[in-house]
């Protein structure tokens, strides 16, 4: 495997989950760097992460001044991981919805050359536990809508458990992604597919969080609904060739 593994954990009020998720990652991938990207959580998640980092040399904390959204937290985390020489960069929820034990299965195809590996709820063997009917329907409809509008075959376009090769993040100029939440996930995966790179789906079981609250909202769902067609047809759609001409071979620092 060429390069170190960096797991990015965006956090907003995840103090109740942080120790368990970091412990789970350590058990699954002992050599991984873990980067907590905290948006000044009122519940003290950032300070807890700082204390934990004093006992774990591979645990890092990025503090941001206030709640800026999932997408911005990730792009800041990506930039930091790339600057530090990451070979593989993983997106993962900090609330144990994503099982840390699945990490080796996400990393293996990337180590074999896949540009992006998606932890997929909607491929054979994947699934969701503890979601109500309403959220199941919204997620299914949202994924089906995005697949049709974008004309792609990937089954889980909105999931947030994924492993990028570092060169993939540079090639897609991830820092320029504009969407948040579900839309952010669709946007990054669509950019990888637009470059003709290999995207692999591995089945995962998503478990609804038991502690803390989801930060997703109707606003974020609506944002995804209008941003998806814009990704393919809008005047500001991302064009791989233009990005290449601009020299999208390095992620700029967060802007
Ligand atoms: N730093 C930071 N972290 C945030 C923010 N908003 C959310 N997070 C963190 O991002 C992770 C996911 O947030 P949730 O609010 O729990 O998301 P969800 O509703 O369960 O959505 C998940 O599933 C979706 C697909 O159904 C995914 O699209 C989404 O990315 C995420 O994985 C959690 O660790 C949460 O603390 C923010 O503004 N800033």
UniProtKB/TrEMBL annotation:
Keywords: Glycosyltransferase, Transferase. The keyword Transferase applies. One of its GO terms (biological process) is glycolipid biosynthetic process. It comes from the Bacteria. InterPro entries: DPM1-like (IPR039528), Glyco_trans_2-like (IPR001173), Nucleotide-diphossugar_trans (IPR029044). One of its GO terms (cellular component) is membrane. One of its GO terms (molecular function) is dolichyl-phosphate beta-D-mannosyltransferase activity. Pfam families: Glycos_transf_2. Residues 7-170 form the Glycosyltransferase 2-like domain. Belongs to the glycosyltransferase 2 family. This is Dolichol-phosphate mannosyltransferase. The lineage of its organism: Bacteria, Bacillati, Actinomycetota, Thermoleophilia, Solirubrobacterales.
């Amino acid at each position: 495997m060429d390069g170190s593994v960096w797991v990015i954990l965006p956090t907003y009020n995840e103090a109740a989950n942080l120790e368990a998720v970091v412990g789970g990652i350590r058990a699954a991938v002992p050599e991984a760097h873990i980067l907590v990207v905290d948006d000044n959580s009122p519940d003290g998640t950032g300070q807890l992460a700082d204390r934990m980092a004093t006992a774990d040399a591979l645990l890092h904390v990025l503090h941001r001044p206030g709640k800026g959204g999932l997408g911005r937290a990730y792009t800041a985390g990506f930039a930091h991981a790339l600057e530090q020489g990451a070979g593989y960069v993983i997106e993962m929820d900090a609330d144990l919805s994503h099982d840390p034990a699945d990490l080796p299965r996400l990393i293996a195809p990337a180590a074999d050359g896949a540009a992006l590996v998606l932890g997929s709820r909607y491929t054979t063997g994947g699934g969701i536990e503890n979601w109500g009917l309403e959220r199941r329907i919204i997620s299914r409809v949202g994924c089906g809508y995005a697949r049709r509008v974008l004309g792609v075959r990937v089954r889980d376009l909105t999931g947030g458990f994924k492993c990028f090769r570092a060169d993939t993040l540079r090639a897609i100029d991830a820092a320029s992604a504009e969407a948040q939440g579900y839309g952010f996930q669709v946007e990054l995966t669509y950019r990888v597919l637009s470059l003709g790179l290999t995207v692999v789906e591995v089945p995962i079981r998503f478990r609804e969080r038991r502690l803390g609250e989801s930060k997703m909202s109707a606003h974020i769902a609506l944002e995804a609904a209008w941003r998806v067609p814009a990704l393919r047809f809008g005047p500001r759609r991302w064009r791989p060739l233009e990005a290449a001409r601009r020299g999208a071979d390095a992620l700029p620092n967060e802007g």
